[in-house]
């Protein structure tokens, strides 16, 4: 239970950074929604990996960093594709502001991501 609380707290902090970058890219720089989403997620993924490896799941096997990085990259790519697809589906079907749609798609992906990160990547 403690790791779940830490995970969601850390993800919340990283998510604020991700959302800020996404909004900056879409509103100021006028990036395409999908490109801005993938870019902001890549930045957030690096921050998230470091935080989860050294804070959330600090009991994870320290000798497996390369394997963990590879699994994490694969998970991030998968989550990014799923999240972006879900965001575009939400954008197609709902008329809410893009930041609300992104938040909803990201929450669903974050729940899935916790279990993948805990059980497959860090194996705790």
Automatic annotation (TrEMBL):
Location in the cell: Membrane
GO cellular component, one term: plasma membrane
The keyword Transmembrane helix belongs to this UniProt entry's keyword annotation: yes
Keywords from the named record: Membrane, Transmembrane, Transmembrane helix
Protein species of origin: Vibrio ordalii FS-238
Family assignment from sequence similarity: Belongs to the GtrA family.
Protein's recorded name: GtrA family protein
A UniProt-annotated Pfam family: GtrA_DPMS_TM
Residues spanning the membrane: 7-27, 33-51, 72-94, 100-117
InterPro entries for this protein: GtrA_CellWall_Glycosyl (IPR051401), GtrA_DPMS_TM (IPR007267)
Membrane topology: Multi-pass membrane protein
């Amino acid at each position: 239970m403690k790791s779940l609380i830490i995970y969601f707290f850390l993800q919340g902090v990283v998510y604020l950074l991700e959302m800020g970058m996404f909004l900056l890219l879409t509103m100021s720089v006028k990036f395409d929604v999908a490109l801005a989403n993938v870019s902001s997620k890549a930045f957030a993924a690096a921050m998230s990996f470091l935080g989860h490896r050294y804070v959330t799941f600090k009991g994870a096997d320290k000798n497996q960093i390369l394997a963990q990085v590879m699994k994490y990259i694969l998970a991030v790519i998968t989550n990014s594709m799923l999240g972006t697809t879900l965001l575009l589906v939400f954008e197609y079907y709902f008329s809410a502001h893009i930041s609300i749609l992104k938040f909803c798609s990201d929450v669903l992906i974050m729940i899935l991501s916790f279990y993948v990160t805990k059980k497959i990547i860090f194996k705790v």
